[in-house]
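ARCHIVE CARD
Drawer: 12
Card no.: 0347
Subject: one protein chain, sequence and derived structure
Cross-reference: see card 0346
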Amino acid sequence: MLKRLGPSVIEAGETTSTALFPSTLEFNPPAHGTWNIVHIGMLVPETHQIYVCAVNCMRGVVLTAAEMGMQNRFSCVVLKEEDIIRGTVEAVTLEGISDVLRKLPTLPPCVMVFPVCTHLFLGVPMGRVYRELERRFPEVDFVRAYMDPISRKRLIPDVRLRKAMYDPLQPCVADEKRVCLMGSDFAPDDDSDLRTLLAAGNRQLTCVQDCATYDEFLSLAKAGTILAMYPNGRYGAERCAKRLGRRYLWLPMSLCCDEIEQEERLLCDELDLPLPNFADEVQACEDELTKTHAVVGGTPIALDATAHPRPLGLARLLLEHGMNVTEVYLDGVLDEDAPALEWLRSNAPHVELSSAVMPELRVAPRRRAAQTLAIGQRAAWFTGTEHFVNLVQGGGLWGYAGIRTMARLVREAWINKKDTRDLVPRKGLGCESCL
């Protein structure tokens, strides 16, 4: 019997909890700027990725590696139906990986192995596989990665990889002058509050994006303090800090000046850094937002959760400064974003909160009577606009400088058109690409 799935759009004032939409079949809109596990893994220099799965599952990761021009750092071991029937999945996995490594021109210092759902369904003893691989190739660090979408209700592959990729870091003597940012796809900009505050206290910020060699990557373990700001990187950074015995700080990306002040005070107190002039920082944000409002006026604005992990906080920021946010595409609300949802209920109850993956969105109209300004690739695709901020996963924006950069990006998006049809299907915004 056919069953109605439920509404894909709800007004903010009608919400009663942070659970906005039912978990159902999903539509995957063709906006692919967000990173997947191939992109994330490639951040670790000189590593080689090996995926062990059926041909149909292999298509996406193969294309990603090809689009990045990283075929030389990517290999596959194909599982067939007969392997499942005969019970040879463990043997094929072990011998396939070994065969790949023996045939490489040089043995990589680190190999990321990606088993899949099949290994979990069949109870393949991957621990035994890894131990044998380590015996055969003692000079290689094997990272226990997974490509298993069945884990979406637990630790998704994205989160698990952001933890596993730092597992090779080993305990060592800490350098209290070094601070390591973990779990983010983008390094903070040069003018980021994080870099500015640390530099003022004679501290050095390091992250995987700064590493050109695997040895440089391993040296991240020397950092006396480990930070995380991107939600999907929080688990891995916290676990790594605990394992290495390091100070750990969770400083989530925020677009609220009061919250930013709390975070920067925490950072400065913990690391004995000089405090910035918060009044001046807030005024500089107000000036940028005023300029942006003068440019965009009452233009309808749509935004989505792939642009920033706190889309409701972004909506609140723009609304509080006179801009016309009409819709937000998201499928869940982070705990940190819950206060912004409560604010929208009371102060902007008619803002539409729309799912980005409900099946009926496949046939939803993608043109608007009024020209829309979008923040994020999905919002741009759903609204059919050429005016959009091409940003994914927060783009490394943090602190007051993050607000000011966002304000500049919004007004630049309204002034200058982009080729939406060309840009949004490209995978991994900001990644190396041969396309």
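Annotation on reverse: The chain has a mean pLDDT of 93. The chain has three domains: 45-164, 175-271, 278-423.
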